[in-house]
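Purpose: get a first structural picture of the assembly so the mutagenesis plan has something to point at.
Setup: two entries, given in the order below. No constraints added.
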Amino acid sequence: MTIQRDLRCLRQLPLFRDVDPQRLKLLAFASERVHFEPGETVCRQGEPGDAAYVILEGRARVVHEGAEGPVEVATLGPNDVVGEIAILCGVPRTATVVAETPLETLRIDRDTFLATVRQFPEIALGIMRELAVRLHETTRRLGTLVAECGARSERP
Amino acid sequence: MEPSIFRFVWKYSWRQQLVILALTALSLPVLYASLELPKTIVNEALGGDRFVFEFFGVELDRTGYLFALCGSFLALVVIGGALKYVLNVYSGVVAERMLRRLRFMLYEHMLRFPLPHFRRIGTGELVQMINAEVEPLGGYVAAAFTVPAFQGGTLLTILLFVFLQDWKLALAAVSLYPIQILVIPRLQRRLNALAVRRVRQVRRNAQRIGETASGILHVHADDTSLYERARFGHELGEVFFIRFDIYRTKYLIKFLNNFMGHLGPFLFFSIGGYLVIQGDLTLGALVAVLNAHKDMISPWKELLQYYQLTHDVRIKYEQVVAQFTAPRLLPRARLDADPPPDAPAFARELQAVSVVWCEEGERVLDGLTFRLPLPARVAVVGPPGSGRRAFGLVLAGLLVPESGRVRADGVDLHRLPESVLGRRIGYAGPHNWIFEGTVRDNLLYGLRHRPREADGGDPERARRRREARLSGNPPHDPAADWIDDEQGGFTSPEDRLARMVEVLRLVGLYEDVYRFGLAGRIRAGERPELARRLLEARRRVLARLAALPESRRVVEPFAVDRYNANATVAENLLFGTPVDEDLAFDRLAEHPYVQRVLTATGLLGELLGVGLRLAETVVELFAELPPEDEFFARLSFVAPEQLPELRMLLGRVDPANPAAADEADRVRLLSLALHLIPARHRLGLLTPELQRRLVEARRWLRRHLPPELEGRIAFFDPERYNDALTIEENLVFGKVRHGYPRAAQAVGELVREVLGELDLERAVVDVGLDHPCGIGGQRLGEAQRQKLAVAREVMKRPRMLVLHHVTAPLDPHDAVALTAALLEAFRDRTLVWIQPDPDQLHRFPWRIELEAGRVRRMAGPAAAEGVAADGALERETGP
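Result (structure tokens, whole complex):
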């Protein structure tokens, strides 16, 4: 559970690929190890984002709470990052994340994360890339859905 | 108050002054005799030719007579000394009593100032006047009558003697007095004028200091510290120049006096010598006159000094008294009278008739007239300038209208003493004063009207009471029980607490006081029962925590045989809380005993190594960080400005052998290591082996504790209540773990649950009530202060509560809650709720709209429409 191990994890993340190792070490030092038990909530949809979590061990489910009830959107595992978008864009959490197995995370609080992004805009670029990919994915799925709905409504 | 200091002194101390005079008179013959005796010894016992002497009827030989005389001399010296001692002490006591009386009278006058007077007089000035300016008056009191009587008498006696020797010479001797009497008062007048200016200037300084301290926030926020310094420096300069003129005049007077004094011998020698040569005067007579004159110098000087002092003191007194005899002082009876039999119960009607109130020449209330059946809950609204503030104050009886009257149940409010107004009416405004003391003190403040003193046989208390009477001070003991249980509606101490809890809940302060309680400390020795019950709660909390699965144990408990990874190395080593400054965690590395423990257990070198590696890591991590970077906040023990120093230290210390470093460097390294929290910093510097040895060192430290450190460390002991920890820390008895989400919240909930089960929550609130509020309530938040001020009034159970914009500092949610709670609590009483905006207006059965100092519109509940028959309702009274 030492900082060196956390550092190795951070370095593997595509998000922090371009960050100076010295600075990354500082980031590791400034962040906090947080443990979640299965079923515990890492973050809740609609709450303001105060931290990002890097998953070191274990799996978590991402659940979207819609009008129709909760829908599981994705599953996260080691080296996935949770909550960076809420921090960066200042929007509330877009989904609820629940630990599925015992979950070991590295918690990077909002101020620390933003300070790092300010110094290394490459991180922001990385997040933009990620967002673009997700947007593309969402649009594609939306298109499929619309097509399906259209097809259904045409049927008498 | 007496217009002049003489009358003041005579009125309150004439008996004592007579005693002082008598003592002085008594000391004179003794003094005379002790001057006379040596002459007798020389002339008779030693120089005479007799062999048998009579001493008070006893026949003695020469030796016997000598010793008898010497013995008498010694006795006289002792008696003279004793008399002087008694006289000095007595004068001192008289002076001090008069000073106490004067200060008290001033303070009492201040209490009687009409409220608007406080707009014109600063607190700084008041403090300056009551404390400093009257100080020299005390010294004067003892001398006021004795000096002129005694020195004047002496002077007259000597003058008489000189006149009897030769009237021409005597005339010569006093010939300069008229000049002095003419010239010196002229100079003295100038001096007096300067003294007046000085008094005012010093008062202004006091005001400046007070204002700077009160407005310190804005001085910094507006970068005006140079301006303030310039202003204060300027005021000091004013004092300097006035003082400078004072010195010049004062010493000119002194010079003239000295000169005149020495002019005397000149006249004696020239005129007297001429007379001797002419044969008109014997040489012996001239010598006698010269001697007499020498004796005259001293009393004359004393009299002149007394004259100057008198003037100085007279001016100070007049200056102060003028400030305290404000126009329209409140009558004494208003403060002191008991409730009259016809005191209104605020049960029938409140009526205002053509009330006029002016501020700075403007008619703030201009013919205010209304009639309201009581009890009523009424909201009063009006735009700025409609006289809302004055409306509340006049209704609460705090302002006496310039014309018109306010009547409750037909009784004019302004005839009533505060024993009625202050108990049956409550008042709070948008900004209220919180008194220094605890939350409890402030809650009960409005119930402290008259003391219930046990007239016990405590001699010290009796002495204080007697002394207070002698100075015209009240004999009451502020430490007595002043709480009016009847007004508060209490029947027992538990009842008091229950009522306070109820009111705290009502105003929304309960949670805050509960938290104060958890953060509060108690002494187990003073409250053994509470400590015992808290220990029980601790056992329950710990058991509850232990029952949780490992991953949810949000607290790592203190265990004597285990290293606590969530505590600092220092806490682990002491395994207790320092009671003393010397052992404070920040300075622990310097402590010789701590160093001894570490040396003896062989840990010193290891910890220095840890400190060194920590320093290296810190320097490496933070090397290129700008000092304002928020990352520094993460590192609790290194400030950015310490980095260069740390870097230099690393250059000095040999990494292979840190123990060889010099003392200061070793302390620095050790201090770093002692601050390390393994679970938080995650640097892997404390190996399990090192942790085990630290636990051993902990035992060693306890076992070999030197006697002088006994009791200086409150050791952690699961079976004992720890006075140095807060209640919450005592209950949790461990460290909240790092890396557990919402751990603090979970702990809080657990503690609350256990306290609830054991019925201890109220006891914790009771401790919270002892939370100090700080000067002016500065240790509370603004909303807390405001809620406490409202609670203070509610505690009084007033028949009528007047609240002017009390929700100003509250957030909207709290404001709504407070309004609702008060509306409910005053269902059967009168609540006058004054606010600028019409929100929540609909919740009040009665509404009054103000405009330009008058009632514009008034509306009541449908049920009360009958009252409208006399035109009090729905009537436009505006133009």
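Residues 864-879 of chain B have pLDDT under 50 and may be disordered.
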